[in-house]
Design a protein that fits this description.
CATH architecture: 2-Layer Sandwich
Order of helices and strands: HEHHHEHEHEEEHEH
Shape: globular
Number of strands: 7
Helix content: 25-40%
Distance between the termini: 44 Å
Strand content: 15-25%
Number of domains: 1
CATH topology: Endonuclease, Chain A
Amino acid sequence: MPDLVPFEDVSHFFEDFKHTAWRLETQRGYASDLASPNWPRFQCGETLGYNPDSPWHVNVREQTMQGKRFERVRLVDQPPTEGQRFLLASGLGNVEAGEDIRNLYRSDAQRIGLPDYDFWLFDSRSVIKFVIDSEGTTLGVHVLEDAESVVRACQIRDAAWHHAVPTREFEAQVPSSV
């Protein structure tokens, strides 16, 4: 396995990719979400939407205007955890910025053999595999570009994408916790 590098060291991939940036999110919650300024707003029941000044939304918009695609599949428990409900709520802003986010119940992901780790796949060439501790904190990432890792990530992407449901449709199926 290649050296563990800080996530910040791979941030250039989000602008340098040529065609697709695809993510699998498997965690029940992320420490970074708890630190987000949107977390208290979510806790108060506020609607979280598109923020044209958000650096993430700006980049997604710029990249998708060039014809590139941002896509992700998020695994969701039944019932969803608080962290997963936050991602469903905040993800709509990402969708409005230009991402295609889909969701898949964890039980279905396990049935089709998806892994329990997060990664980004860029242009079906580079895999950024996360190392996340039990508290949801990203400790770093491994950059994988060997054929075996890339082909496996492509297989995972294809299986996940085939079974996942677009965010707006999925959100309508999830019972409210209020």
